[in-house]
Amino acid sequence: MRRTPLLLTALLALAATAAASADLSPARNLRGTWVSPLKGKAYQLTGRLDVPGSGWADIVETGDIRLALTRVDGNKAYGTITLSNKVETYTLTIKTVKGLKRYPAQRITSTEATSRQIVLTASSSRVSFSKVPVKNATVALTTGRFTTSLLWGTMTETFQGAASVGGTSGTMTRPLSGPFKLMKSG
Prior knowledge:
mainly beta; 13-stranded antiparallel sheet; 1 helix; elongated
């Protein structure tokens, strides 16, 4: 009877364990479609746009997210993210010789949907995703957590160069940042 060398036995056992644990990566629970639990309320970002020499605009942006993750490889999940139903509400404050003048809140609604490729990286119950370019901005998940049915965390939107809201241009002194929450669909 032939004996299998000890090193070969150990390597075969290690290979079998690695193959079995490939399906046990934290990212396996991310595969599928994730959507806003309430229409228009998947995220709420706040920030400030400085208008050089004249004031600022405080901004609140809300909208929907659809995250479709179709492939998982190790601790990474791949798919597309779609941002839609965006509503920006801004309050403009202007410096005048008599002091500050605050204008009533204005609302800008966009039904345009923007889809981009995305890569999520999971470890344990935490998740982060690649930066996603959207028009003249970059969206990123700065902190995130997930279960088998919920995905939540903090999202930021950073603008390159000058930003504009409601015809008012300036520089974002505070990137848009705030919470997001998604639930697994189906």
